[in-house]
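Section 5.1 Outputs to date
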Amino acid sequence: MLLSNEKIDKIAGPSVLFIGPYPPPYSGPELGMKLLLESKLKEKFNIHFLKTNFRKTNVDKGKFDLRMVIAFFRFLFFLIPKLILYKPALVYYPITPTQIGWVGRDIWCLLICRLFNKKCIIHLRGGHLRLNLQAFHPLVRAIVGYSCKYVSLALVQAECLRDQFENLVRPNKVEVLYNAIETKEFENQNKNEYERSNILYMGHMTQAKGYCDLVRAIPMVARKYPDVKFFFAGNMRKGERGVFFDQITGQKLKYEDPFKIEEEIVSSDYKKNYVKLGIVQGDEKKALLAKANIFVLPSYSEGFSRAVLEALSMGKPVICTPVGAHKEVIKDGINGFLVKPGDVEHLAERIMILLEDVELRNRMGVANYWYARKLFDKEMVAAQMGNYMERIMNEPN
């Protein structure tokens, strides 16, 4: 079935309808929903779930085709009966940052919930809605504004992302919910045992994620450290389907073809320093993280990368850009380094500092291990989510 209920034990608590993606694929939004559904929230609330995603891999996500059209009508077919049957006191729904996502489902979901007089919490798992919204068709932008007018609460992934709902949701109805991780799953008892030559990147291998910049940094690092290995885990695809602007400058990204960048490195003298792994999951991913010396993600825009959070939990120093939650989570020189998007020389320099200074690298790694457990453990984040849900339920209509 394209859209279905996940089996969740029912209790006598208030009825809540969660709507959103669920693995596979095993990317941020899907795993974020999975963690909430499997948390102790199910002990306080009578949770029902409507699964929305229909693609099994990340490669075709956001692609407009016949399957997306069919999925839209099936979504409506399942949503309305669930609102009638379960009579939820609250609806939780993660929104998208793209025009196709809003037209294809978000607008309709919010308007239908409004029609049924349901309180609704929306959740932005990204950091590029505000900039993308400027490029929406004026009519779509107006309808998005109207559909957000009556939401009960809007969640973002960091304090610095509150402005994502500017002119959409009143500031007093915007709250922060950090990304969550099952820290027990990403346990690493041997935090200072790793391959010193291994540099790890995990994510979509696209320009917007900084893949092209990191590949360009390889020769700069390899000239000084010939044995260094840059491991790239993720899927490579043409085009950008979600990120179109540099979150720091607000300027539109000039697209680069990652396949062309890959061709350049594998045909160069530094091909031995480049390792493309494809998508990694489960124990393979954890083993890859455990062996890595440094984790790098030089994105142009983010909400709160799950890959960064996994690296923190495994006790790895992180080099990333000050986009989204990362500029709050990564303190430059303390638990990692922040570099400006597109600054390849600075990126290479910071990598080499950590390759050279083992004591600094280990200090950062240990700090991140405990940092993740202090702030981002699944049950801590779920408890905060539960408080938000109770607050909204107790507010007058």
